[in-house]
Design a protein that fits this description.
The protein has 295 residues and is α+β, with helices and mostly antiparallel strands. Helices cover 30% and strands 26% of the residues. The relative contact order is 0.16.
Amino acid sequence: MSRFRLIALILAVGSAWAADKSKSHPHMGKIKPFKLGKPDVTLKASELAKVDDGEMFIAQTMSADGLSGRSTAVQSIAAPPKTIWAQLLDFDSYPKKVDKLVECKTYADVPKSMGNRQLKVMMKINAAPGFNYEYYCDHTYSPKDKSLIWTLDYERDSDFDDVTGHWYVTSHPTRENWSQVYYSADLKLKQWVPKFILNILTTTAIKSAVTWVKRESEEDWKRNPSTGEGVGGLSFPKVPSFAGFGKPPPPPAVAVPPPKSKLPAKKVAAIAGSAGAFTAAAVAVGIKIAELGDE
């Protein structure tokens, strides 16, 4: 079979099995999803030194059948975490920044407890000329855990068999307004997807993913160094304070009337009149003394 016919056959099969948001995915997950929190990645002192010098640490593993692979990257970025998160959570702007990504749309953004958010996003990539893939991801963002993790949205059918991923962003331990960023992704292809696509998505794509975040975050931090809001001042929902949660609200202030006098009304009036007469007499004496002093 000629190479042209083989590519035509692959494209025809791919069209028959194209993603479909109206159908559920064939399964509920084959790859073990990532957990919120710091990833289980340990770098040697020499590797950390290279990362701080601007190099990117990358580790990759491939399955024996060539249909799945996991990649991890670590990078130091000259911007605070808040600026980086503003870039990572602005999904709809991804096509302007991310290589090979031609479309990206958020179709669900649901606030959760403790400031967490669930974000469902449709993505379309052009892995190679003639090889376009559409997939739907279900993200969980946790500011407390400094993490964004995702799997496929199994309520919709994606072109990839399974996808999981994890962003972890933390402050740099020694450099002010710097961050250390960890990115991990695990991808499993469907049988009809050519294996060379996996190589593209687990080598070139992971480096590209971290590179665009570094580039955009550092440029944004230079534009907004005083606030660190990122993306022209994009801010995040604030977590409500739970201090005093469950306690009843303080009672409203009540005006207290002055105590009523126990003396008869006539006697009270007489006392008031006497007090007034005494005050007037005192003022008159004061005036007279002042006149004598002037003489």
